[in-house]
Design goal:
Protein name: Exonuclease family protein
Organism: Arabidopsis thaliana (Mouse-ear cress)
InterPro entries: REXO1/3/4-like, Ribonucl_H, RNaseH-like_sf, RNaseH_sf, Znf_C2H2_type
Structural class: alpha/beta
Largest sheet: 6 strands, mixed
Order of helices and strands: HEEHHHHHEEEEHHEHEH
Keywords: Exonuclease, Hydrolase, Metal-binding, Nuclease, Zinc, Zinc-finger
GO molecular function: exonuclease activity; transcription cis-regulatory region binding; zinc ion binding
Strand content: 15-25%
Distance between the termini: 61 Å
Length: 242
Amino acid sequence: MDSQLNPSKRRKISVRHRCVACYKMFNRREHLVEHMKISYHSLHQPRCGVCLKHCKSFESVREHLNVPDHLSKGNCKAIFTKRGCTLCLQIFEEAFALAEHKNKCHLSPPRPLGTSTQRNPSSSLAGSRLKAMALDCEMVGGGADGTIDQCASVCLVDDDENVIFSTHVQPLLPVTDYRHEITGLTKEDLKDGMPLEHVRERVFSFLCGGQNDGAGRLLLVGHDLRHDMSCLKLEYPSHLLR
């Protein structure tokens, strides 16, 4: 009754705001709005098959589904343990459907990155029907505080998941942060890296189908491609980026 008579004494209720994509919570609405502006959530992001939470990568989905029991907040881990494929992370309603899927779900192990994997663009793509390639770059840090992104490794994969080109790259500036926890790279890995200019020429040659006319022919697929292309100092038609 006193709280009704004295509004100033009412207990203040904290209203939190949740991102509908990644479920992150914010105390203030403007913080949520800022998060939505910079997070770039999209329908193409990997999602948990149980709660549909958006994640930045499939590894993030895997961590979400295998979180330690004392940190688990939902039933995603329990459901995934019973009805999930540990390779592609799909969830199935029935056990027989999961068993049938596991008989078909096989991926070849990735090729070690220890040494450069290089092919001749014209001979590799001659007579092929390639429509797309996927690009991934690993960045190390330069500058006094290690915040300047520098390309340190490049990998190109065709649409059959074959590694077409893979090499370490010599950074243009001294490396002050190898970001080993993320990149797995060390000083030893980069000492025999390929010069950035040569890497750029090779990548562009593959994307042009081995031709020397400078015209892009293949779709280029990747995560945050514009950033990777910027670090490679490579320009490519925007309508061919995915």
